[in-house]
Every structure is written in C-alpha cells, then in structure tokens.
Amino acid sequence: MRPLYRRLGEGGVAFDQQSWQTHILTPAATIIFEALSEIGDGEQPLPLEPALRFLRDELEVDTDTDEIRQVLRSLQEMGMLGG
Amino acid sequence: MTAEPLRLRNLSPVILRQRLASASLTLDYGAAVVRLGSDLAGFVADLQRVYGAFALVDAAFADFHTQIRGGRGLRAYLRPQSRFLIDGVQPFDPFPQEQALAHFEWGVNWCFAQRFNQHVLLHAGALALADRGVIMAAPPGSGKSTLTAAMMLRGFRLLSDEFGVLCPRSGQLWPMLKPLALKNRSIDVIRDYAEDVILGPVYKGTRKGDVAHLAPGDTSVDARRLPAHPRLVIFPSFRQGAALSIRRLPAEEAFAHLAFNSFNYEVLGAISFNAVADVIEHCPAFALEYSRLDEAIESVRALLADARAASERA
Fold first, then answer.
1. What is the value of pTM for the model shown?
2. Domain ranges, ordered by start, for chain A
C-alpha cells in the first residue's frame, strides 16, 4: 500500500499505512521520494539497483552519503524500494 | 441583547453544594461537557473561585461523569483524602483532601487524554484573536502556560492550555476551556502581571511542584462554543534574561514537533497525520525564545497579523 504523503514547504512527511510509522523527509529526501514515486507503479517496490542508477544518472545524486543511505532505508521500510 | 448568564461565582454556595451533592453540576468546556458531583466543602469553595466565570447550565448530555469524594473509613478523618471517580470507578490513587481541586483538574485531564479520541489532542495551548487561532506547543517546563496565561490577560481569547483540540473533519481548533495550571515561579509572575487575576489556592508540594489555577475570563468562557481556524504555530521557550528571538521553522520540523508531542497522534494514525499536515500547510511556525512577557505577546500579535496578511494575499 502506497504511503500517504504530504509536501510541506521544501520538505515533506509520509505516513506508512501498514506500519503506522511517520517519516519526516528533509528537502533532499523529499526530492528523492517524489522522483521515485513518479517512476514507480505505486504497488510494487522499485528494484534497488535501477532506482540507484536513476538517482545517480538522472538526478545526479551521490547515493553513497550517510544522509542518502538513511533516506533509502526509510523508503525500503515504507515498501517503496526493494532490498 | 443577550442576557448575562448565571455564573458560578454568583451562585449561592448553598445551591452549589446542593448541585454537587446530587452530582448535577455540569461544566461546559466547549469541546467536552463534564458532570461533577462532590461532598467536600473545601473543594466546593475552590471550584467556585476558579470556575467563577462558567455558566450554570443544564445539559442533557455529558461526555464524562466524574465525582470528587472523600476518603473512606479512617481516611475520612485521619489525613483526609479526596478520591476522583469516573463512571463510578477510581482510576488512580487518592490525593490529600486539601488538594481536591488539583486532583479534579488532573483527573479530568486524564479522562481527556485517555478517551477523547474523536479529536486530535495536541499538547499545546491555544488562543485566538477573533477566529484566528494560535497554537502554542512546547514540552512541560518551557514557559508555555505562563505565556498562554499572560496572553489571555492581555486580550487574547483562551481556548485551552493543556489540550489543543483539533477537529480532523473541519480543521478547526475547539476550546477546551479549563483553568490554567500554573506551576512554581509562574504563579507569582502571573499574580503580579495584571490586576484582574483570579487564582485558586496554591497547592504546595504536589507531584508537579507548587500548583495554582488561573480562572479563565468571562470573554473566553462565553465563547467556549466558538472554534477558531489555526493561523499560527509557536513553539515558545522561556530563558531567564534572553533577548527575544524568533526563528521560522522548516515545515517538516514543525510537523514533527507538533505531531510527536500530541496525546493521541499514534492512536489516530492517518487521521492525525492529515490533520497535523493541514495545520502546518496553512500556518507558519516559529520557535520563540523570550524572557519578557509583553515583548513576546506583541511579537505573537505581529506574527498573527503577518500570517493573516499572507493568507489574504494567497
């Protein structure tokens, strides 16, 4: 089930309807969340490797930083990204 | 012309005692109605003082049926106690009888926090100018109640101190108009702050330190059925000697502070998620550090006026 999502200013918040956990998204995390939401089908998790490639190649995101790794973990917890 | 209601302060103590003895006194807080019975004479006098502005109402329905009763057996005479009952059940330990009003206030707060899940209960004070609401959210000890009390005494309409009652359907803030519980140093600060301050007795050495209750004013009580639209979120903090400092908070940070400090955010799930997000989407949020009450109040007034101007431009 797709998380509920609200854009708030430059950041955002997401509510995981399965775990009832709320995720606070920094502006950087918000960009990633929105980008991956657009390319996903909303039902199945996106495979991790193509998602990382998309972030690196299309958005020029350095996926090896602690902050981005934390964002990706949150997206995996929400079921948006595969393992 | 609307007739002046019969307020509890104008009621004969005999009549008030009869009402309480028959458990037929109704306190209308706005968002909730509480029915109360008691047989404790000292409690009746304290209640009449801090609830003096409340109208004597005959409500057919009450959300909570409460009682403050004396101790049983030896405890009726030896170190007398007060017992708080909800629906005839005593949910926690008795208090010393001289602290019965504090016990009642604490008990009613407990009832709200446990059972009032049709609304999102923010851990926040709420005030308004006309229908423009200010949410004052902060952890205990931050000076929130002191500033909330001072704002009421300077012309803001008080909606609530402890519970910011947010209706998830309408997005409005409902009054939950209880006396403000002032603690420790803030009791003297507020006593000296204005001439028309009505304070209940100071209860020394309670579980939360020294506590006294500030009576809500007539204007706030008479408007207890008028909700307000959230327009501004303030996270106040008092620091002795601090210069006034105001910092706009990123919206996602404001959301986290407001949501995760609410009483029932996790109980309501998606309902509270959307309700709090609606507030943050429409209200600028600021961290406000202060040491002088009047200066802080004027800054809140200015921020509220700015928020209004911004929403009219939008």
1. 0.93
2. 4-77
